[in-house]
Design brief:
Blueprint lengths: L5 E10 L3 H15 L4 E5 L5 E12 H16 L6 E4 L16 E5 L1
Antiparallel strand pairs: 1-3, 1-4, 2-3, 2-5
Amino acid sequence: MLKNGFTDYLLLEYKGEEHQRFVPLVQYLFHTLGITGFSIYRGKDEEKVQVFIKVNGLSLEEADQKLQQISNALKQKLAKRWKCLPSPSLPEDYNIATLPYKILFLS
């Protein structure tokens, strides 16, 4: 997800029993935050949901700030069972995502 310290995508990767609730919650949250240009996928495991947000060359620090803002808003409605990528706590080579399995929503 990172190339030379910059990214074109942010990723929220949810895995938990409330996966059906996660999708409409993310859609509503993104609508209220004015976030457009995102896609939602299901992983091979039905409880895994991946939300890819298209951005334009954000630095790792900017990406982390944006992801923390989104994550904090989600925490108000749902127990935290997701990870955010890219993450400054991981080496660049470990900021990777598994391939999505099925499209749930494209914007």
